[in-house]
Design brief:
The chain has 296 residues and is of the alpha/beta class. The protein has two domains: 7-182, Nitrogenase molybdenum iron protein domain (Rossmann fold, 3-Layer(aba) Sandwich), CATH 3.40.50.1980; 185-294, Nitrogenase molybdenum iron protein domain (Rossmann fold), CATH 3.40.50. The chain has helices at residues 2-27, 44-54, 77-82, 100-106, 139-156, 161-187, 202-208, 226-239, 253-261, 281-294, and strands at residues 38-41, 59-62, 88-91, 110-113, 193-196, 211-215, 243-246, 265-268. The strands form two sheets. A four-stranded parallel beta sheet has the order 2-1-3-4, with helices on both faces. The protein has a four-stranded parallel beta sheet with strand order 6-5-7-8, sandwiched between helices. Helix 7 (202-208) links the parallel strand 5 and strand 6 (211-215). Helix 2 packs across helix 6. The radius of gyration is 20 Å and the shape is globular. The N and C termini lie far apart (41 Å).
Length: 296
């Protein structure tokens, strides 16, 4: 029954969001599509990877504005106009950016999910086929995303192959250097347990030998019950955790009250970024690692 209810809720949310997209498109004047090579990406980490690969060869547009919540996003008419010339929209897939399919269709773009070749983990406590979409928070997966986007760009814009190939090789080297930089830092953390606001950090934890000891929300957007919070307090005590991490895009009033009542420090781990100091995928990962180091 729970799974059917969640599926129904997700369906209704998608209908509401896509209805807004259709209305926004209908309000636009006639759009003159540019002939400039152009693509788009739904969230900042995918956008930043794509723009590093594309360089000056292909225009890359970001759909979800920095600081916006992917779970409640509605695109503006100006944004729809900006991406009207895009050949493709790169997506995460699943419920995180489910709205992108209708948006892409309305501007005449194809959607490509960038997860091909990535081992997707099941969503936390779900049994109805949903997967955890936060797979970009592993550099190993970011490298797969990079090669997926590069292959698609070359197939669409073969005249740009040389530039895209060079940029891809350079970016993969940067990702390797990033992994070599942050892996020892995470391996040497005295506290390898951490607790987060919602269930975004399992790929990250699995990749770097950490443990998500608990989350404040059982799943994204789902309010914790009193019993759930009692269990979470027990997990915090067992794991010896004194800091809880939250994403700045989320409304965390409930978490703040919980932290105050239980003498817990709050700090930010940003899973999407887009604003300083999280203004590139590489800086996103570096800053999050630094935060973990500074909150033992």
């Amino acid at each position: 029954m729970k799974n059917h209810l969640r599926s129904l809720i997700l369906f209704l949310v998608v209908i509401l969001l896509t209805g807004g997209i259709v209305v926004a498109v209908s309000l636009l004047p006639q759009i003159s599509k540019t002939t400039e090579p152009s693509v788009a990406a739904t969230i900042f980490p995918i956008y930043d990877i794509a723009r590093n690969i594309a360089g000056d060869a292909v225009k890359v547009s970001l759909i979800l504005p920095p600081g916006a919540d992917a779970h409640s996003f509605e695109p503006s008419p100006s944004l729809i106009k900006e991406i009207s010339g895009a050949k493709v929209v790169y997506t995460i897939g699943g419920p995180l950016d489910a709205w992108s399919a209708v948006l892409a269709n309305n501007v005449g773009a194809e959607t490509i999910t960038v997860s091909s070749g990535i081992e997707l983990r099941s969503a936390n406590d779900e049994e109805d086929g949903f997967f955890d979409p936060h797979y970009w928070l592993s550099i190993k997966n970011a490298k797969i995303i990079t090669t997926n986007i590069a292959a698609d760009l070359i197939s669409r814009f073969p005249e740009k192959k040389e530039t895209i190939t060079t940029n891809t090789d350079n970016y993969l080297k940067q990702l390797d250097a990033l992994d070599q930089e942050i892996r020892p830092s995470l391996q040497n953390l005295p506290q390898k347990n951490f607790v987060t606001f919602h269930d975004a950090w399992y790929y990250f934890a699995d990749e770097y030998g950490l443990t998500v000891a608990g989350t404040f929300e059982p799943t994204a957007g789902r309010e914790p019950t009193a019993q759930y919070l009692a269990d979470l307090i027990s997990k915090l005590q067992t794991a010896g955790v004194k800091t809880m991490y939250y994403e700045p895009q989320m409304s965390v009033a409930g978490l703040q009250a919980f932290a105050k009542d239980n003498n817990i420090t709050l700090a930010i781990l940003d899973d999407i970024g887009g604003q300083a100091p999280y203004d590139s995928y590489i800086n996103l990962m570096k800053t999050n690692v630094s935060t973990l180091q500074n909150n033992k």
